[in-house]
C-alpha cells in the first residue's frame, strides 16, 4: 500500500447491469429496475462490502423517444429513485443512498422536503446527485417545447441549490425540542423564513421539517462541461465523471481540485469518483469472453439509439455501420460526453459499429476487466496515480457482476489496505470524511441571543 | 348486525394526534411527525386491526405563516408523505398507503411516476389523496405571488388527473415481458405515447415504468365544495369529508352518490368516509376528562391561528375571545369548511374561544367519544343510517388513541360483524371492493392486432 487515503466506492445500480443488453446475459435479472428483491440484494451486498453508497441514476422519461429502440432495453422500466431509496433505508443501516434528481424538472421546495425526509428516515444517509437533465424527450414530459439550453440549465441549477440548502438551513440544529410546560414544540427564534427572491425562484420557506440529520444531504454532481465543473467545485462533495484514459482523468482531477481551492474549500471535501464499468472473470480471458458474449447480445438498433442519445439526440441510423463516424452537429445535450465520443472516434479511426459496441458496454466510462486481482490492480493504479479518489462501480451485468465484485475484488482491495473493513460512522457524511455544514443562521442567532427577545421561547 | 355492508376504516395519522395540543397530552409522542418508529407502530397496529388504509394528510409548508403560532404545534415537523410511505411499505404487507399530494404544486409526470413506483414497491397498496391545496402560504413556496383561485385549481386538477391516469395507462398490462431470443424487454406495440395537449399541460409520455399493480393507484379526494364533489363523483374512489351532523352527512352522502350515478359509475365504487375524531376512555366521563385536559393544554395563540387558517387565512386575533364570531370576509381558501364553521357559530351562538377550542379538537369533523362500546355505537349509527360507508379515524392524541381503538373498539365492531377479521385480498383495490381499471388502449390494440405490423414484436 502506497497511500493512506481510502478509496471511495459507490455501487452504481442499473436495472440489470450497465451494458445496453446486460439483461440478456445468462443469470442477469431481466426486470431489475422494478424488482425490489434485486435492489435489496445489491444494496445489502454493497453494505456488507463496506461501499460508501448505493447510487441510482435517473432520467425523467424513457431513455429515447423511439419506443421500439427502447423496447430492446430494460432501463426504461424502473422505480423513481427517491421512492425506492426510502424503502431501501429500512433494510440497510450504514450505506449511503444517492438519488439522482433534476433541477430542470423539479421544484426546489418539493425536492428539499423529499431529501430532508429521506435523510431523517435513513438516519443521515441521503445524498442528492444533482443533474440538469440532458435529453429533449424529457422536456416533452414537462409541458416544454424544447429542452432549455445548457447555460440556462446551469444558471437555474445554481439558484436551485441556493434555495434547497437555504431551506435545509432554515431550522437551526437545536431549534426542535419540546417544552410541555410552555407549550412549544420548537424555538420560533431558531426557525427562519428563507424569503428567497431570484430570477428563477421566489421561495418563502421555512421547510416543514427540522434540519436534516447531516445538516445537508451529501451533494453529488456529474458535470464534465466548464459550467458543470464549476458548479461542482462551488457546491459538490462527490463528483461523478466519465474518464476513459488515465491522462484525461489526471488532468480532470487537477483541474477540478484547483477550482475547489479557488472557491476557498478543502480539496479533500470533493471526492472525484469516475465510473468504472467492471467485467470480472476467473481469468482475463474469461472476462473477455463475457464482453464478446455481451457484444453478441447487442442488436444494432438499441446500440445506435443509445449512442445517439448519449451524444445529444443525433440520429445516427442514416450512417453506414462499418465506416468511420461523420462530423456531428452541435446539440444542447451533454457537451462533455459528445466531445469524448468524437475524440475517441478520431483517435481510433473507429467505425460506427465498433463505437456503438464500445459505448453500449461503457458509455464513455473506463472499462476495468480481468481476474479479481487484475481488476484490483487497475483500480489501484489510477487511485495512486492521482486520477481519482475512488470509483462508482457499474458492473456490465447484474447481479453477478456485483456479487463477484463484493466477494472477490473487495477482499483483495481490503488486503491492500485500500478500502475499509468496517464503517467509521453512521452517516454518509461521516463515512466520506465530510464536514457537517453549519447553518447560515447560526452566527446571527448567537448575536441575537445576547439581547433576548421576551417573545421568544427563552422567556 | 343490520347490514351486510362492511364499514371501511382508515387510520388518519397526524404526528401526535389530531388535537392542536395533542402532543402535550400525557403519553403522546411529541415528535411523532419525524419519529419513524411511531409511524411503524401505528401502521402495523392498524394493519393488525384490519384497517383499509394508513393515511397521511399534507400541506406544502408550515401550516401558518406565523412561525410563532406554528411553534406551539408539532404538525409542521413531518416527513413528506410519499417518502415515508415507501419506507412503511417494507414493514407492512396488506394495509393501503394513502399519500396526500397537491395538483397545484406538483407536476403530473413526476407524481405519476412516484405513485406508480409506490404501487409497485408495495405490491398494489398505493392511493393518492388528491388535493388542490388550500393556503396562500403554500403559494409563496412555489414562486407564486398568490394562491390560484378555486375555479382555476379545480380546472387544473381535472386535467392533472387526466394526464396522470393517461400515463399509468400508457403501458398495457401485458406489455412488459421478456424475450431473450429476439432481445425485447417489452412489446413496443403495447406501450403508448400520451401526447396530451391541454390548457395546463403538454405531456408526451410514456412513463418509464410499467403499469401500476392496481392499474391505477386508488383515487382519494376530499372536496366539500361543488367543484370538489363533482371531481370526486367523476374520478374519486374514496371521498374524505368533514361532517359534524348526521343530517348533513346524509344529505352529502345522497348528493354525492347521485352525482356518481350521473357520471355513469356504480355508487358502490366511491366510498364516502367522513373523519371521526375519537376520544376513548374506560367510561364516557373518562373520555370527557380527556377532552377537558386537552382544552387545558391549548394556548389561545395556536387555537386562534389554526381556526384562522382553516377558514381561509382570516386573521382572528383582533376579535374579542368571549364574544360571538363576527361576519367573515370571502377568501380563496377551502370554501366548504368556512361555511361549516360559520353555520355552526350561528347555530350555537358560540364565542370565539368556544369555537377555537372545539375546532382545535375536531377541525370541523365529527367528534366520537366515550367508552369503546359507546364509540362503536356512534360509528354504527351513521353507517346504518346512510351517513357514510366508513370512517377516517383520527384520535385526538397518539399513539394511545390509536392503541385503544385497535384493541377495544375494533373487536367490538368485529363482534357486530361490521368490520373485517382478515383481509380479503392483497391489493388496496381488492380490499376496498374496487374494480381494477382497464387501460384506455386495450381495445385499440386488440383491433390493431388483427392486422399485424411486421415491425412489432409479433414479427
TrEMBL record, chains A, B:
Residues 434-459 are annotated as: Disordered. Residues 27-387 form the Luciferase-like domain. Gene3D superfamilies: Luciferase-like domain. Belongs to the NtaA/SnaA/DszA monooxygenase family. The keyword Flavoprotein applies. Pfam families: Bac_luciferase (PF00296). FMN binds at residues 58, 100, 150, 154, 225. This is LLM class flavin-dependent oxidoreductase. One of its GO terms (molecular function) is monooxygenase activity. Keywords: Flavoprotein, FMN, Monooxygenase, Oxidoreductase. The keyword GTP-binding does not apply.
Amino acid at each position: 500500500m502506497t497511500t493512506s487515503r481510502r478509496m471511495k466506492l459507490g455501487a452504481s445500480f442499473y436495472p440489470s447491469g450497465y451494458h445496453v443488453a446486460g439483461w440478456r446475459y445468462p443469470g442477469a435479472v431481466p426486470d431489475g429496475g422494478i424488482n425490489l428483491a434485486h435492489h435489496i440484494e445489491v444494496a445489502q451486498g454493497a453494505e456488507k462490502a463496506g461501499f460508501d453508497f448505493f447510487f441510482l441514476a435517473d432520467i425523467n422519461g424513457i431513455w429515447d423517444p423511439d419506443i421500439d429502440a427502447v423496447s430492446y432495453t430494460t432501463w426504461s422500466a424502473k422505480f423513481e429513485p427517491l421512492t425506492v431509496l426510502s424503502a431501501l433505508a429500512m433494510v440497510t443501516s450504514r450505506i449511503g443512498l444517492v438519488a439522482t434528481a433534476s433541477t430542470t424538472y423539479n421544484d426546489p421546495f418539493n425536492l428539499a422536503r423529499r431529501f430532508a425526509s429521506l435523510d431523517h428516515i435513513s438516519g443521515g444517509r441521503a445524498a442528492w446527485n444533482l443533474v440538469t437533465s440532458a435529453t429533449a424527450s424529457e422536456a416533452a414530459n414537462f409541458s416544454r417545447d424544447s429542452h432549455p439550453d445548457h447555460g440556462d440549465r446551469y444558471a437555474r441549477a445554481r439558484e436551485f441549490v441556493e434555495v434547497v440548502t437555504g431551506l435545509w438551513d432554515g431550522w437551526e440544529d437545536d431549534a426542535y425540542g419540546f417544552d410541555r410546560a410552555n407549550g412549544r414544540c420548537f424555538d420560533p427564534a431558531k426557525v427562519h423564513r428563507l424569503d428567497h427572491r431570484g430570477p428563477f425562484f421566489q421561495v418563502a420557506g421555512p421547510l416543514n421539517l427540522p434540519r436534516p440529520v447531516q445538516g445537508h444531504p451529501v451533494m453529488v454532481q456529474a458535470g464534465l462541461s466548464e459550467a458543470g465543473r464549476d458548479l461542482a467545485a462551488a457546491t459538490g462533495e462527490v463528483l461523478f465523471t466519465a474518464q476513459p484514459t488515465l491522462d484525461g482523468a489526471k488532468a480532470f482531477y487537477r483541474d477540478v481540485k484547483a477550482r475547489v481551492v479557488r472557491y476557498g474549500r478543502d480539496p479533500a471535501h470533493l471526492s472525484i469518483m469516475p465510473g468504472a464499468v467492471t467485467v470480472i472473470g476467473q481469468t482475463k480471458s474469461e472476462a473477455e469472453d463475457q464482453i464478446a458474449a455481451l457484444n453478441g447480445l447487442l442488436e444494432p438498433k438499441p446500440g445506435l439509439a443509445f449512442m445517439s442519445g448519449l451524444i445529444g439526440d443525433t440520429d445516427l441510423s442514416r450512417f453506414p455501420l462499418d465506416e468511420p463516424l461523420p462530423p456531428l452537429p452541435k446539440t444542447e445535450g451533454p457537451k462533455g460526453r459528445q466531445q469524448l465520443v468524437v475524440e475517441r472516434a478520431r483517435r481510433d479511426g473507429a467505425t460506427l459499429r465498433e463505437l456503438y459496441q464500445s459505448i453500449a458496454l461503457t458509455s464513455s466510462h473506463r472499462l476495468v476487466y480481468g481476474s479479481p486481482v487484475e481488476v484490483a490492480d487497475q483500480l489501484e493504479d489510477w487511485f495512486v496515480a492521482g486520477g481519482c479518489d475512488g470509483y462508482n462501480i457499474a458492473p456490465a451485468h447484474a447481479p453477478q457482476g456485483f456479487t463477484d465484485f463484493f466477494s472477490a475484488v473487495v477482499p483483495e482491495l481490503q488486503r491492500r489496505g485500500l478500502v475499509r473493513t468496517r464503517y467509521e460512522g453512521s452517516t454518509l457524511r461521516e463515512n466520506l470524511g465530510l464536514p457537517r455544514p453549519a447553518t447560515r443562521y447560526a452566527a446571527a442567532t448567537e448575536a441575537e441571543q445576547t439581547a433576548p427577545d421576551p417573545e421568544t421561547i427563552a422567556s
